[in-house]
Amino acid sequence: MNTIRNFCIIAHIDHGKSTLADRLIQLTHTLSERDFKDQVLDNMDLERERGITIKSHAIQMEYEFEGKNYILNLIDTPGHVDFSYEVSRAIAACEGALLVVDATQGIQAQTISNLYQAVDHGLEIIPVLNKMDSPSAMPDEVKDQIVDLTGCKREDIIEASARTGLGVERIIERIIRQIPSPEGDPEAPLQALIFDSVFNSYRGIFAYFKILNGRITKNDHVKFVNLQTNYHADEIGVLKLRYEPRTFLEAGNVGYIISGIKSAKDVKVGDTITHVERPCHKAIGGFVEVKPMVFAGLYPVDADDYEELRSSLEKLQLNDASLSFVPESSAALGFGFRCGFLGLLHMEIVQERLDREFDMDVVNTVPNVSYKVFTTRGESIDVHNPSGLPEPTLIDYIEEPYIDAQIICQAEYVGPIMKLCIDKRGTFRNQVYITTNRIELTFEMPLAEIVFDFYDKLKSISKGYASFDYHYTGYKQANLVRLDILLNGDMVDALSSLIHRDHAYDFGRRICEKLKELIPRQQFEIAIQAAIGSKIIARETVKAVRKDVTAKCYGGDITRKRKLLEKQKKGKKRMRQIGNVEVPQSAFLAVLKME
Questions:
Q1: Widest CA span of the chain, in angstroms?
Q2: Number of domains forming the structure of the chain
Q3: Do the beta carbons of residue 313 and residue 324 sit within 8 Å?
Q4: How does DSSP classify residue 303?
Q5: Residue 553 to residue 567: CA distance in whole angstroms
Q6: SS3 467
């Protein structure tokens, strides 16, 4: 166990985590040159295209140092705020962390929040200043920021460039010298923490674990403590880029187990593996159930694909423990699922993966957050969907989730960013100068306000420099109303939304105008209305396409024309009574993307 080092890399999105992992893998000769490709741990096409890590990956490397062979277990982590749950799981399985900071950008919001998580878990922190080869690097300024944040000495900060390989040997040497080897007793009862799972269509679920105490041998009879299910360890092994089977693994090691598990519900990330004959006394604590923050309906474009969508979501859930879904139905869209996501990027990624990996075409409804509704009878109801809201007469008050938002930006953008946050019902809390030109702003804001387009607007007004992170703080009372969209008097439930009363009129008017452009004209007039309860607050009309029925009358008495027009009028009246308005999918998507 003295030669094992378990560590993760924490950094803000796009600060060079995956590139640094590439260099570590190359330097330890874990892969042959033929098998190597850039971003080798990002095995999804989507990750490569966007240059982001979505899933955390684990890989075991071997390195000879001062005549000893060391085993280095690296768990790569995502950097985007939506995937902070993946980061927490990786941190729980490690004893140390590389804190990677971009020398051209300095410390960003996500770096700070991930660092606090690592410090809470008692990890040894090694600061690395990346992208030193860039002409726009500001090493002295960024080193000051790192010293202020971590309290380390200036000479402890490793100057590196993941692109050129500068400083990577020093990083490995520091990992071996500074990160403690795992503590644990190989003779104690088996106690292993599941930190990830992936689905394989031939062999079922591979659960990734870290052994805290004891040892596990192939064909052992094991049980998952929280779910109380028993399995045989058909295969165990270590995670190189491919799976490498082993006959046994001891305390401190990171590995995988295959036991023919077919259902996602049978593997819970954060569960404890132990032996059936000699179980451990208690499960490993410290893992939280991930709470979805953003909810949206996902519906198949073709109603016949409902069951296929269910199985696609179940398979996706195996690789993405933070996705949750329950069945629901909508009058406009038929049968579908109400899905919970960690944030908007997570929602976008899930949609994209459904399309690419399962060839599923889906429509999603307007995203919203979870509200607590308190009724006049003294009950409390959790509402994820505007259509689940009780009658207005039964509602006493509604509470919505609030967050603490941390924004780090340059001093020149403070004014526009404050205006943006205050327009989004934010309350200014605090500002701290990190350096003479960089400020950390703290706001208290409703989560519902950042769900829509906050991140995009923040990036555009700060020319891409501002970084953003948030922490959920709790629920507060709010003056919310349900805004319904009616087409010819019929409610389109997929377009309903819960919104603050002050914003309802403006938002309702914009949706009506957008739908007017997108709904094709029929042979009868279509009234598009936005309503709060029974009160109409905005209206647009799609004019009828008029067929010229008098075109064939040339000459003759006026009564002939009048008779044809009367006949047309009756037909239009009947059509209006029985005609249905189809809302095209482009309309749903356009309303979602509406500024």
A1: 111
A2: 5
A3: no
A4: G
A5: 15
A6: strand
pLDDT of 515 reads 84
Is the pLDDT at 456 greater than 60? The verdict is yes
Could you give the CA distance from residue 525 to residue 542 in angstroms, rounded to a whole number? 6
* Domain-located, residue 234: yes
The answer, yes or no, to whether residue 201 has pLDDT greater than 60, is yes
Residue with tokens 């960089």: 438
DSSP state for residue 124 in the 8-state scheme: E
Question: In sequence order, what are the beta bridge partners of 363?
Answer: 299
Same domain, 492 and 405: no
Beta-carbon contacts of residue 48 (< 8 Å; ≥ 6 apart): 39, 42
Per residue in 553-583, pLDDT (tens digit) is 777 778 888 888 888 888 777 766 566 666 6
Show Cβ contacts of residue 188 under 8 Å, excluding neighbours closer than 6 positions.
Answer: 213, 214, 251, 280
Residues 208 and 230 in one domain: yes
Evaluate whether 417 touches 458 at the Cβ level (below 8 Å): yes
Q: What is the DSSP string of 65-116?
A: ETTEEEEEEEEE---SGGGHHHHHHHHHT-SEEEEEEETTT---HHHHHHHH
Bigger pLDDT: 424 vs 585: 424
Taking alpha carbons only, the member of 202, 307, 308, 318 closest to residue 265 is 318
Q: What are the C-alpha distances in Å from 144 to residues 127, 139, 150, 162?
A: 12, 9, 10, 21
Q: Which CATH number belongs to the domain containing residue 80 in this structure?
A: 3.40.50.300
pLDDT of residue 352: 83
Cα torsion for 494, 495, 501, 502, to the nearest 10°?
Answer: 150
Phi, psi of 456 (to 5 degrees): -60, -45
The pTM of this model reads 0.69
Burial of 372 (0-12, 13-18, 19+ CB in 10 A): middle
Counting Cα atoms < 13 Å in the Cβ hemisphere of 242 gives 6
From 459, 478, 497, the end of a domain falls on 478
> Does residue 286 fall inside a structural domain?
no
CA distance 507 to 449: 13
Q: Which of 454, 451, 472 is nearest to 366 (CA)?
A: 451
- Those residues whose C-beta lies under 8 Å from the C-beta of residue 444, and which sit 6 or more positions away, are 402, 403, 404, 405, 426, 427, 429, 473
User: For the chain, how many residues are written?
Assistant: 595
Residue 328's CATH number:
3.30.70.870
Same domain, 262 and 327: no
Residues 170 and 55 in one domain: yes
Residue 287 lies in a domain: no
**pLDDT mean over 158-173:** 83
Q: What is the pLDDT of residues 469-507, one digit of tens each?
A: 777 788 888 888 888 888 877 777 777 878 888 888 888
